[in-house]
Each structure stands twice: as C-alpha cells, then as structure tokens.
Specification:
This protein is an alpha+beta fold. It contains seven helices and eleven strands. The chain has helices at about 25, 45-55, 55-60, 75-90, 105, 155-170, 190-200, and strands spanning about 15, 20, 30-35, 65-70, 95-100, 130-135, 140-145, 170-175, 185, 205, 210. α2 packs across α4.
Length: about 220
C-alpha cells in the first residue's frame, strides 16, 4: 500500500505496552506521531525512544500523542523500556506497538527492502525508521523515512509540526529553515488587500513572495 500526504491514515487494532488500541480512537482529537523501530534492544532505537520520552512536554504542548512501533513481542517491549529509562535517565510513558507479525508494518509500508542484513532470525525484514505525522482528521501530513542505520532528528519533526499547525490556523506557509517565531510567507492565494488586513506591515520581496511577522 502506497500512502501519500493527504491520505487517511489506515486504521488498525494492536496490542501496545499500554493496552489494546484502535488507532483511530487513539488519535481522537489530537495530532499523532507514529514512528517505527527495527527491533528492541538495539542501540539507535534505544537513544531515539529515550529522546522522545525526554521531550514529552514539547509534544504535549502541541496536542501531539506519540506512539512507537517495533517488530517484537509485547514482553520484549516491556523489558526494553527498562533499558531505555536507565540509559537515558527518563520515564518512558507513551505506548509502543507490538508488531512481531509485521501486519501494521506492511499496512504502512515500513519494511526494509534495501538492507539485506536488517532481518530477524527467520529472515523476515525489520522496519526502517518511518515517521508519520497525522492530524486530528486522521490525515497523513508528513512522512519521513530514515535508513535503519541513522537516528532521527526530532527537532525537525517538531519544527514541521509547528509549521503545519500554524499553517492550519493562519493563511501562511513557512520558508526554508523556518523555526517557531520566525517570519512566515503569506499564502499565494491571499490577495494583497486581504494581506493588509491579516498581516499588517507585511513585506513584498517579489510579487509571489511576501513575508510577515509570525502570528504564532
């Protein structure tokens, strides 16, 4: 299944470290970051889940729920969480999906088809490092795929969430390397007359590029 931006995130039922879930019910009226990990008790994944746990307030303040997925059984997840907490000095509180049969990984096209070494003892591929940002309407708004060898940059994940949420609220887009609080771009669909009302004092760089102070 090829998932594209704007598609509805496929629903599924799963066992997690915090009980059984229906994914769409889990989303509720929140944003969600769903991110996959090749396997439990692996070094890169241990640092990643620790970083997400450490940044709980960053996600909470943006109305974002985080849920991980790893291609292992539930009992392995629970033991692994002990290591994550110890190594990173955190208290991991978000759920991790057990996906040993790869049903959800297949549904979201997360399996590694490139690295022939990224397999379990039965020769079944593990996942790569996928990130899906999903909005309260259940729409996929961002996908990022990292190779299994490379840990993710969660500053970037949060940066894009800020941009998406700001763009949903105001008629703007964001420029290269934008960060929260930086100047924004007036959406091309906004007329100059509208821009005068919505973004007083905006600057016209080119007829197609108008900069305004962030309304964030």
């Amino acid at each position: 299944m090829v998932l594209r931006l704007g598609d509805e995130a496929p629903n599924f039922q799963a066992k997690t470290t915090q009980g059984d879930i229906d994914f769409h019910k889990f989303i509720g009226d929140s944003w969600v970051v769903l991110f996959s990990h090749p396997a439990d008790f692996t070094p890169v994944c241990t640092t990643e889940l620790g970083e997400v746990a450490r940044r709980k307030e960053d996600f909470d303040s943006r109305n974002v729920k985080v849920i991980g997925l790893s291609a292992n059984e539930l009992h392995d997840h629970k033991e692994w969480i002990k290591d994550i907490n110890e190594v990173n000095n955190v208290n991991l509180s978000f759920p991790i999906i057990a996906d040993a049969d790869r049903k959800i990984s297949t549904l979201y096209d997360m399996l590694d088809h490139q690295d022939a070494t990224n397999i379990d003892t039965k020769g079944i591929p593990f996942t790569v490092r996928n990130v899906f940002v999903i909005d309260p309407k259940k729409k996929i708004r961002l996908t990022i795929t990292y190779p299994a060898s490379t840990g993710r940059n969660f500053d970037e994940v949060i940066r894009v969430i800020d941009s998406l949420q700001l763009g949903d609220k105001h008629r703007i887009t964001t420029p290269a390397n934008w960060k929260k609080g930086g100047d924004v771009i007036v959406h091309p669909a906004v007329s100059n007359e509208e821009a005068d009302k919505l973004f007083p004092g905006y600057k016209t760089v080119k007829p197609y590029l108008r900069l305004a102070k962030s309304p964030f």
